[in-house]
Every structure is written in structure tokens, then in C-alpha cells.
Amino acid sequence: MTIEFLNREEAAKELEHLAREIAYHDYRYYTLADPTLSDEAYDALRLRNLEIEKKFPDLRRVDSPSHRIGAPPSPEFEKVKHRKPMLSLDNAFSDEDVFEFLNRIRRFLKLPSDTKISMMAEPKIDGLSASLHYQNGQLVLGATRGDGQEGENITANLKTIRDIPLILQGDCYPKNLEVRGEVYMSKGDFDLLNQKRLAVSEAPFANPRNAAAGSLRQLDPTITAERSLRFFAYSYDALSGSSDLTQSDILTSLSQWGFSVNQEIELCSDENELVSYYKKLEERRSSLPYEIDGVVYKVNDLKLQQRLGTIGRCPRHSIAHKFAAEKAETILINIDVQVGRTGVLTPVAILQPVLVGGVMVSRATLHNEDEMKRKDIRVGDTVVIQRAGDVIPQVVEVVLSKRPKDSQPFHFPNQCPVCGGQVLREEGLVAKRCVNGFDCSAQAIQRLRYFVSRDAFDIEGLGDRHLENFYKDGLIHTLTDIFTLQERDQNSPTPLLSREGWGAQSARNLFEAIDKRRTISLDRFIFSLGIPQVGQVTAKLLAKYYKNLDAFEAAVLSDLLGIEGIGVNMANDIIRFLETPEQRQLINDLQKHITILHYEEIETVRSPMTGKTVVFTGTLQTLSRSEAKAQAERLGARVAGSVSNKTDYVIAGSDAGSKLKTASELGITILSEQQWTEIVNQAAENIAA
Ligand code: IVH
């Protein structure tokens, strides 16, 4: 019917029909590469859809095909918390690492060492991960990975990617569905994009991954729409439903629902098959139309995946087997010695820029004084640079045959190159350190940078340049100064907005960004303190153990050593940090301006074990100790190493000795391994229900 004569009801009906029809033809074209409609007929459908929407703008559907063109620009991306964290993958760099990965799985699951475990091998696409939420088959939300806990809402941008279905195919998809996968740019589209950019004197992107990232995080989705991004789906999570599935089933369903699923996947039954798959794919790597940087191996059975759980930010059930690093030769122009947050002096190679595996490299780490001496690295040398994945490029060797005749050995400084302070090398350590602490401006600035960085306080608008200027001008010297900046600014004769590069709006944005971070979780806070050796994983372990800041501040060595994942060295560093009066003072000062939340278990399941203290003793038949402990933690229980009157349950395997005896003397409830497993299974059913 002519659009002119359509009434609202008819228009709404036709828009619904067109959305489905066009989605089906997109699927045939982009996913199956098997179109059943001519280009003209397809364009006619889209045009009709657009025209009906033009007449009835309020009837535009969330799954309308017109979203492919892009939406109006937005001022910023809204944050979205992931329902389940988006994890990272542990890396394997050799066949031995892969064998060890499988053995670790067998040990964890307490399986005999010759058990075959079915594994799915998939190419590791070099792009960016994204999460897509579907309700009743319609795409309602799409987000970036962000820091793994919280990403950004980029729905409008993702809707422009043609092989992301706006409506799912068929009708047997879960009502609530989250799909995860990789957004990438094909090698061909990358070359075309760079040619276009060069033609208008714009800087080309270094590699397809950067191009995909730059295209996806555009506030104006019409730009994303022009960039020909693609998507491979690799997992989904349904809010309810059976977990009797395998990774193969997952990929089959994703494909049936209209997603592009990588065709290079292979089901392998042991580690030898995995490594031969790896070798085969590495040979074909350059002929694939998209970039891959390795292979991902995943335990095929999802029930086993669930049992294996996570360690830190990585699942135990999967690993990325990376391809060998790429190398290139270039000239070492200079050696810069940088001073880090903890005073460590790091030599950095300043290089004649060179392309290494598609990325332009002009700096590389030289590690430390010993390494430099060992390799006898000198300014003017021709050196071999290596880059593996996201790792900082390194200088691996000197091409001695190309060394200039007049070259001089490099002398590592004996004074801090920034503050001139004394430099010491502790016994047994390779690093030299400036002892001036935060009196050394380099250390103070690095600490500030670390404190505001994404995994720490995540304060937007305090970039390196601003921090350096603020430090130089005495505006921000200590971490607390960040939180008093606005108050001081109000009474200042030279407020922020009078400074070069600042205006009323940017100053307001900065103060708002700081205010937004006046409440922080305990693990982030601990991480932000920059305690030597304490990264995100350890900060989380500490927060989980101590629950609140007061308890953490009162930490003693014996407690710390009882936390799995914390060794003697690290425990000593933590204690040394907490015993330093300046650090205590700083924590006190910060607390006057911020609120530190008590640690809350994020991913635990409510069960009769939540909040209880349990002790495992004796030999368990079906579970390894690590798995038993992981199960207990998932149920919100605390696992202790010894029995006391604070113990709620003792789980006794065979040959249990003195702990079992103490438990019965104290009248503590004793559970068998089977009773324990029943509790675990019951809890799992409760969440599935
Ligand atoms: S599974 C725990 N499968 O690699 C995360 N990831 O280094 C599980 N990636 O963040 C992801 N291809 O962005 C998986 N076939 C594939 C992948 C893949 C690329 C990316 C993904 C992830 C990163 C981890």
C-alpha cells in the first residue's frame, strides 16, 4: 500500500514485518554469505522501512534496520555494570605451557593424569570484546568490556555492525540472553580505511585492532557505521536453562540465531591435537582475511567449566596459546633512564621507529642494569626488537656485526636522573632504586598517575600532562590534594579556569569526575595505594579476607601468609608499607575525603554455608583441595586451615586425623564429602531455578 494511505496500526504492523524480513536477509547475506534477494529488492525494503519511519517517527522500533545507519551523536558513553565480569585469558607461549594447563585442570578436577578432556580450539581474533543483551530476541544493550566489571554502553554503535543481529533468527532462543564475542576489522577493510585516511592527510591506523577500537568508541555512531566492523560470537549466557551443554552446542546455537561464528574451530580430544591445530593455524595465519594473535583452548563441557571456576581475572578452563612474537631490526638512538612509582630506575631504548608486526615501535624496555651489561647494549647499536601481543616491546639482542667502531659502553647512573638523589641496589635484587621516595618528583608524579588510573580511582580528566603541570605548580602534591582541589580552587586568586587550556566547563567536569570517585570499593582502594607487588588480584584477595579498611590496616604477617596467593615476599612488602608512618598518615588523610566501602562478595551464591567458616580435612575422593576451596568460596564460606571454636563445619575425607578429633571435641558439625557435594549441587540448582 502507498505509504501516504497507511494508518498508524498498519504502519506499526508493517514496520514489524520489515524488521524481521530485513533481519533475515542480513543473516543470509552477512552470516551465511548466501543471499536469496537481489540488491535492488533488498534496498527497496530498507527504503520503505525508512519512509514509513519518516511518516511515523515514534513508531521506530528498537530493532529497526535503520539503526544500521547510525544514531545522533551522544555527549558521552554511559557506564554499564556487567552482570558477570568479563574475564581475561591466561597465556601459554609454548607446547609445555599447554600440557601444564591440561595437567592443572586434571589435578583440580582430581582426574587421572591420562584422562582425555575434550577441548574446543578457536582462533583468537585480534579485536575487542563486546557484550550484547537480547530480550525476547531483540538487541537491547551492547557494551564494551571496560575494566571487566564495568563497560560502556555502545549499543548504537554495535547496532551498525551488519553481522550483529538486531533480531534473532528462529524462535528457540532464551528470553534473556547475553552474547559475547569479538568486534574486529578485516585486513581488507583496514587497508581501504587507511588509504582513505591518507588521501585526506589523516594519520593511518597502526593495525586492524586499533582501527576497530577507534571506530567502535565513536560518540557519533554514523562514523562507526562507515567503518565496516565485523563480529564473531564465541559465547552466550542465558539467565536460566540447562547447563548440560558444551562449547560446541553454544557455537551451534549462536550460528542458528543468526550470529557469525568462526569457521576455523575444531574439537580436539587431547593436548597433541591442540598443538597440531595450533601449528596448522599458524601456517595459515597470513592467508586468513582477519588478524589473529593465537588460539584459544576451552574445556568443551560447560559443567566442567563451571567446576573449574576462575583464578584472579582468568577462568581455569580456557587459555590463549599465543603466536610467536614478531621481531624487527632498528637503530638504538638513545638510552633514557626513567624513574618509576617505587623509585626503580628502568632503562628505556629510544629507537629509530620501526614496524613490528603492524605496530610502529619507537621505544622498548631494556629491563635493568644487569640485562644491559649482559647484552652490552650501546647507543648507536643495531638491535633486534620483539613485540608479543600487548606486552611492552623489548630489545632482545644486539647485532654486533653492525656495531659502529667508535661506540662506547653505557654507564648506568649512580644518581637519580630526576632528583639527583642517592641510588641503591638492595641485596639480591636486580633493580636500582632512588631512595628519595615522594621527595623525588618523578616518583610523586608516577604515584599520582597510578592513583587516578583506570584500575585504581579511575578519575577522568586528570591525564599525564595535567598531573605534571599541577604538580609543578604546587596544586597537587599528595594524593589527598586531589580531593581538596575544588575547595582550594574556590579561594584561589588563580583558579583552574584561569589556567591555559582550562575553561569553566572543563574545570567543572574535572571536579565532577573527582566527586564521582569519593566512594570506592575496598579492593580498588588497596590497589590504588600502590603497595609494592600488590596488583589487582592481590588487592581483591586482601579485601576479601579483611572486609574493611580497619582490619586491613591491622594486618599481621601470620594472617597474610595464611591467604592463598600471598607469599612471604609480598606479605613483607605489605607489612613494611603499613608500618611506614607516612603511608599511615596518607591513608588517614584520604579517609577524611572519601568513603571506602566494606568488601561485599560479588559472585557468591546464597546457601546454608554463606558467612560460615569451614575446614577441609583428610583425603577427599572426588574433589581436589583447590576445587573444594573454590566451591566453598562460591557459596560465601570462609575456608580456614585449622579447627577452632570459630569453625562452623568440618568436611572430613578419609584418613582425617587430629582436626577431626578436635572438631568432635568442640562439638562442631562434621560433614562427609558426599554431604558437602549435595549442599554444593543444591545451591547450583537454586540459582538455575
Ligand atoms: S573466550 C575469559 N574466545 O581474547 C574470556 N576470547 O585475551 C573468554 N578473544 O577478552 C573469552 N577471540 O576479547 C574467547 N575465540 C575467542 C576469542 C577471544 C578473541 C579475546 C577476547 C578476550 C581476550 C582474552
Walk me through this protein's architecture.
The chain is 37% helix and 20% strand. The strands form 8 sheets. The chain has a 5-stranded mixed beta sheet. Helix 1 runs antiparallel to helix 2 (39-55). The model has no long low-confidence stretch (mean pLDDT 90). Bound molecules: 2-(butylsulfanyl)adenosine.
Rounded to the nearest angstrom, the distance between the terminal CA atoms is 48 Å
| Helix-residue proportion | 25-40%
Please identify the structural class as seen in this structure. alpha+beta
CATH class placement of the largest domain: Alpha Beta
User: Percent of residues in beta strands?
Assistant: 15-25%
Number of strands: 26
Write the CATH homologous superfamily of the largest domain.
DNA ligase/mRNA capping enzyme
CATH architecture of the largest domain: 2-Layer Sandwich
- Strand order in the sheet with the most strands: 2-13-10-3-9
Each distinct ligand: 2-(butylsulfanyl)adenosine
- CATH third-level topology of the largest domain: D-amino Acid Aminotransferase, Chain A, domain 1
Structure annotation, total helices? 24
Overall form? globular
What's this entry about, in short?
Helix content is 37%, strand content 20%. It is built from 24 helices and 26 strands.
